[in-house]
Amino acid sequence: MEFIRLDISDMSLHQEAAKQLIHFAKEQRIFLFEAPMGAGKTTFIKSLCEFLNVNDTMSSPTYSIVNEYYTNSKSKLYHFDLYRLKSSEELFEIGFKDYIESGNYVFIEWPDLALPFLDSYLRIIIKIENNNRYLCAESIKNS
Prior knowledge:
This protein is α/β, with parallel strands linked by helices. 24% of the residues lie in helices and 32% in strands. It has helices spanning 14-25, 41-51, 88-93, 96-100, and strands spanning 3-7, 30-34, 66-70, 76-81, 105-109, 120-129, 132-141.
């Protein structure tokens, strides 16, 4: 199992961490973010989007469920926040499968309901230890 741990305690570390995470992910495009409320999931996703040259203004998709962004090269990126959803049926109804099969980057906060739809993904956990934040990622492949 491949694993990476990155220090994201300070915003000045985010761009390098985003670069390392994208390199670590290789061809994987589905990123699941797990962390307590306020741990910095959306903030780090913004750093990933900056690294991937998203030219749209980013915001949290807490109420819209999904935000779609375009990069400078006109590719799409999807950012989900599943906190408010109650069932995987709701995900199915919004066409979630089309998003994850698009080949575009898909960043998902509060991902538990998405798990039944996924064969492989990058599991990312943001941990807070001694007032420092660490991003820990591992590649998951379900057989």
